Amino acid sequence: MPEYSVPRRVAAEALGTAFLVATVVGSGIMAETLTPDKAVALLGNTLPTGAILVVLITILAPISGAHFNPAVTLVFTVLRQLPMSLAGLYIVAQTLGGIAGTVTAHAMFGQSFVQASTHIRTGGAQWFSEGVATFGLVAVILAGVRFERKAVPWLVGLYITAAYWFTASTSFANPAVAVARSLSNTFSGIRPADLPGFIVAELAGALVAAGTMSWLLSPASTVAHTERAAP
Amino acid sequence: MPEYSVPRRVAAEALGTAFLVATVVGSGIMAETLTPDKAVALLGNTLPTGAILVVLITILAPISGAHFNPAVTLVFTVLRQLPMSLAGLYIVAQTLGGIAGTVTAHAMFGQSFVQASTHIRTGGAQWFSEGVATFGLVAVILAGVRFERKAVPWLVGLYITAAYWFTASTSFANPAVAVARSLSNTFSGIRPADLPGFIVAELAGALVAAGTMSWLLSPASTVAHTERAAP
Amino acid sequence: MPEYSVPRRVAAEALGTAFLVATVVGSGIMAETLTPDKAVALLGNTLPTGAILVVLITILAPISGAHFNPAVTLVFTVLRQLPMSLAGLYIVAQTLGGIAGTVTAHAMFGQSFVQASTHIRTGGAQWFSEGVATFGLVAVILAGVRFERKAVPWLVGLYITAAYWFTASTSFANPAVAVARSLSNTFSGIRPADLPGFIVAELAGALVAAGTMSWLLSPASTVAHTERAAP
Amino acid sequence: MPEYSVPRRVAAEALGTAFLVATVVGSGIMAETLTPDKAVALLGNTLPTGAILVVLITILAPISGAHFNPAVTLVFTVLRQLPMSLAGLYIVAQTLGGIAGTVTAHAMFGQSFVQASTHIRTGGAQWFSEGVATFGLVAVILAGVRFERKAVPWLVGLYITAAYWFTASTSFANPAVAVARSLSNTFSGIRPADLPGFIVAELAGALVAAGTMSWLLSPASTVAHTERAAP
C-alpha cells in the first residue's frame, strides 16, 4: 500500500472528522425540524451517522487510518502503532475539522455558525455510558483490525448505530466530536461545561479496552509456538 | 487460524453476550422513553440489535465461535463440533455475561441494577413463535457456516432483524438472553415465570433445525461419490 | 459446487418461500398491531422482508437456486437454464410453501390459520406497478448473476426494500407469494379476486425483462470476437 | 472485462437514471400518502433511494460505469477518463431517462404523467447544501474507485442515505435528477425556476471535489519512486 505524506494524512483526518460532525449535527437539525417524535428523530440521526462512518472510513483509511477520534489516536499511540508527533497533529486536525463540520452544518441550515449548546449531559449514568461506549468502540476497532481489516468501516458504522440507542448518552465516544457538538445548540449538542466529564470517561473507556483486548486477542498458539520453539 | 485458550474463549462468550443483552435492554429503554408509538420503539430496538450482532460475531467468532446462545452451543455439541466440557463452560459464561449485560444497561440509564420483569409472555402462540424463531436461527447458522462462512455475522444480524417482527414473541431465540431479560422490568423484559416455556420452545426449535438441516445440507454428489467409489 | 438431489432442491424452494411469506405476513401483522401510522407500519414490513431475502437466498441458493418465485423460475426455464420438469416441481413447491408460510404466521400470532383477504388491490395503476416491479426484479437477478453472483442475495433484498415504496402495489412481484397473501386478511393481504391481474402483470414484466436484458447484457467484445474469428 | 457497445452503454445510463428517479419520486409519493410525520416520510424516501443506488450501480457499472448523473460524467470527462462525445450522449440519456422515471412513478400511482412542481427550494443555504452534497458525492466516488472499487455501489448508496439528512436540500446532487424532479408536484419535487441555482451549485461542488481529491489521492510513494528512479 502506498504511503501518504503527512499533510495529506492530516488533511484526511480533518476532512473526515468535518464530514462526520456535519452529518451528526446536520441530520440532528433536519430530524428535530421534521418530527415531534423523539425516537423518530433519533432514527433520523442514527442512520446517517452509521452510513457516513462506513463511507468515510472506507475512503480515508488508506490515507490516514481514518481515526477521526482522539481516543482512537491515543490508543494507537499507546500501542506504538503511531508516532507521538503524528498523534499530536492528528488530534489538532480532528478538533479543528470537527468544528468546521459544525459550522458547515449550521451554514447549510441557515443558522448562526457557532452556538453555545444548552443541552445538559452530565452525571454518573452519562459518564458510565460514555465509558462503555468508547470501550466498545475501541474493542471493535482493535479486534476488527486483527481479524477482518476490510470489514472495519462496517463494524464501526454498525457499532455506532447500535450505541446511539443502547447508551443513555447516545454514545459520543469521541472527544473531538464532543467539542464540535458543544458549539451547536441543536438536537445533538452538549453544554460546554459538560465536556470534561465526557472526555475523561471516553479516554478511560478507551484505555481499559486497549488493556482488555491486548489480553483477549493473544492467541494460545503463539504461546505454544514459542514453547515448541524452545529446546 | 490460531487457537485461543479456554479462558479467552469463555471470556469472549461472556463479553459478547453481555454486549448483546446490554444492546437489547438498553435500546429498549431508550426507545420506550422517547416515543409513545410502539412500532417506532420496536424499530429502535431492532436496528441496534441486528447491528451489534454483525459486529460481535465478526470480532469474537475467531476466538470462541461467537455462540452467545446456549441453544446454539447445544446444537454444536450434539453435532460433535464442541466438546461437552467446553459447552458447559460456554453456557455458564453466556448466562452470567447476559446478566452482566442487563446490569450494565440499567446502570447506563440510572435504573436499579436488577429488576423482576412483569412483562407477560406466555401461551401457545408465543411458544410456537419461539420455536419457529430458533428453528430459523439454527438453520441459518448451519447453512451459513456450510456455504458462506464469512457472511455468518451478517446472516444472523439480518435474520434477527426480521425475526423481531415476524414472530409474535419478538424472537428471543436464546435461553441465556431470556434469563437476562427476565431481570429487567422494561420494554424488552419477560416475566421470570414465563422463562421455562420460552426455553423449552427454543431448545426444541434448535434441535428440529439440527435434524432438518443435517438432511437438507447433504449434497447428492457426496452420495454419488460414495456409490462410485464402491466396487 | 456439489449438486443437490431433486427432493432437497424442491424442499429448499418450499422452505424458503415459507419463511419469506411468514416474514411478509407476520411482520405486517406485528406492524399494524403496534402503530396507527401506516408509513411506520410499512417500514416495519419492509425491513424484515429485505433482511430475510438476503438471508434466505444466501443459504438456499447453493441448493436450489433460491427462486422462491414462479416468475423467476419461468424466466430461467425460458432461458433454458432449468429443465421444464424441474420448473413444474419448483412452482408447486413455491405455492405450497408460501401457503404454509401464511398459516405459520397466523399460528404465531394466534389467528385463524386461513383467511380470505378483503384488501382490494386492482386497476391499471396497480397492474402497471406489478409489471414494473417484476421487470426490475428479473433485471436485477439476471444482471447480478452475470456480473456479481455473490452479491445477488443483497441485490434482491435491497431491490425489494426499494420496491415496497416506489410502486403503488408495494411490489408483490411474485405469483406464489401473491397466492399465499390472498389467504391472510391482514396488512399484507390481497383479495383473491385480484390475483389474476397481479399474476398476469408479474409474468408480463418478467418476460419483458428477460428480453431486454438478453440484449443489454451481450458484450460488444463477444461480437467482435465472433467477427474476428470469421475468415 | 468485456466492452459494451455505445447503444448499450447509453441505454444503461437511461435505464439506471429512470429507475433511480422512479424510486425517488415514487417512494416520496408513497411516504407522504401514508404519514403526516415528515421525518417518517423522509425515512420512507431515504431507505429506498439508498437501496436502489446500491443495486443499480452494481448491475449497470460493468456496462456504462453507472454515472446516472451529469455532474459525475462531467468529472470523468474533465479527468479524461471518458471521451467528450460519449459524455454528451450520457448526459442526454440521463436527462431523458430521468424524465421517463418521473412519468413511470406518476403512472404507477395513478397521477397525471407530467406536473410542474411548486416546491420552493432556493436561497444561499440550499445552494451551499447542494454544493457540499455534490462535493461529497464526487469525493466518495473518486476515492472509492481508487481504493475499493467493488465497494463503490455501497459507498454511494450509504453516502446518499446520509446526505438526505445532513443537508438542508435533502441532497439532490444530480442535475438530471433535479430536472426530472421538477416535473413532479409531490414530496420530492423542485420548482422549475429553482433548477438553475441547484445545477450551478452541483457542478461547482463536483469540480471542487475533483481538484481536492486529485491532490489528496496522490500517494507520497509515487513521488518517492520517481525521485528514486532519477539518476
Automatic annotation (TrEMBL), chains A, B, C, D:
Where located?
Membrane
Q: Where are its TM segments located?
A: 12-31, 51-79, 86-107, 127-145, 152-177, 197-218
Entry protein name: Aquaporin family protein
Q: What coarse category fits the chief subcellular location reported for this protein?
A: membrane
Q: Which domain of life is it from?
A: Bacteria
Keywords, A to Z, come to: Membrane, Transmembrane, Transmembrane helix, Transport
InterPro entries associated with the record? Aquaporin-like, Aquaporin_transptr, MIP
Q: How does it sit in the membrane?
A: Multi-pass membrane protein
Q: Hey, which family's this protein in?
A: Belongs to the MIP/aquaporin (TC 1.A.8) family.
Task: List the SUPFAM superfamilies.
Answer: Aquaporin-like (SSF81338)
